[in-house]
Amino acid sequence: MSSRNLFYILACISYCLILGAGTYEHISTWPIAFSEPPRSLAMFQGEYALQPASFWRLVHPVTLLLLLVTLILNWKTGRRKYILITMGAYVLAVIATFIYYVPELVRIIGTPYAATVDAGLQHSAGLWITLSLVRLTVIFASAIVLLFGLTKPDHV
Questions:
Q1: Which of 11, 38, 85, 97 is most buried, taking the most CB atoms under 10 A from its CB?
Q2: 53-70, pLDDT tens digit by residue?
Q3: Domain residue spans in the chain?
Q4: Contact criterion met (CB below 8 Å) for 90 and 139
């Protein structure tokens, strides 16, 4: 197997890992965490709090590095445009993540525990979920583009 194919496959796996993790969070974590904030945010607080940032801090740089190496190795092939499209969408998603999604999530989950439901916080959380689903859809579409590029010849 050529290094072009190996790195392309690793980039696809890493990118799909992001897609899977994001989908998992939207199905299993956010509906519960944001159901009755701030009470429902307890899963992010205390000594045994859920720490999803540990995963995301590792997977984003690895994925970006794999995509970059894959782009360099495939620069003179028909795969280049597929990798570039995916990288462009991913870089925009990462920028949006650091500008809006992470700060807003930190603000929401950092709300001190209270036994009552805060309607304003619930609205903010609902908006965050909606916008995050848009971001996840972009990542999903660009994952299809990346996988489609893998079907193209790897020779120059």
A1: 11
A2: 999 999 999 999 999 999
A3: 3-149
A4: yes
